[in-house]
Amino acid sequence: MSAAKPVLLILGSGANIGDGVARAFAAKGYRVAATSRSEKPKPEQVPAYATDLHIKSDLEEPSSVPAVFEKVKEVLGQAPTAALTFTPPDDPLALSVEDLNRDFQVNTASVLEAAKQAVAGFGGLPSSAAKTFIYTGNRLTDGPLPGFVDLGIGKNGSAHLIAAASKAYAPKGYRYVNKLNADRGRIIEDAL
């Protein structure tokens, strides 16, 4: 009997980066599950949207993340590798403490919870299975960009978390990726 196809879970999937990640991994034989705040796009809206499972979920509540992982295991039969993507706000200069706290929940606290769920799931996978957690990186971890204050705070907090997890879990064969290649190219090929 052949091995089950690996599963990718995209938390915060959109029609651009999320769709691109979904298509790239689907082309490599992955089953793809995705979450978003909205309903799954209709095929005519995003013809290439490659997901085997869509879950409506608002990552503003980190406590919602374990249920997402459970749903993926229930429907697709195994724990997923996870990737997260988010969209920056329009007016960071008007950022309030309440907005920063909300965005921190989405951009960093939910990443922490997703990383915990990934580690729990990785432990149950066969030794030959890929065990990679991908957090989409951007230039906000290289330095500040005017207009992206809360996203920069979240990306840098999560980048630090991912770097720490990468070092701590490397002996178990778990890989954590949060950055584009040095040439600003895609990480997808390197992560598979």
From TrEMBL:
It holds the Pfam family adh_short_C2. GO terms for molecular function: oxidoreductase activity. Belongs to the short-chain dehydrogenases/reductases (SDR) family. The keyword Oxidoreductase applies. SUPFAM superfamilies: NAD(P)-binding Rossmann-fold domains. It comes from the Eukaryota. Keywords: Oxidoreductase. Gene3D superfamilies: NAD(P)-binding Rossmann-like Domain. This is Uncharacterized protein. The lineage of its organism: Eukaryota, Fungi, Dikarya, Ascomycota, Pezizomycotina. The keyword Oxidoreductase applies. PANTHER family: 5-KETO-D-GLUCONATE 5-REDUCTASE (PTHR43669), SHORT-CHAIN DEHYDROGENASE (PTHR43669:SF4).
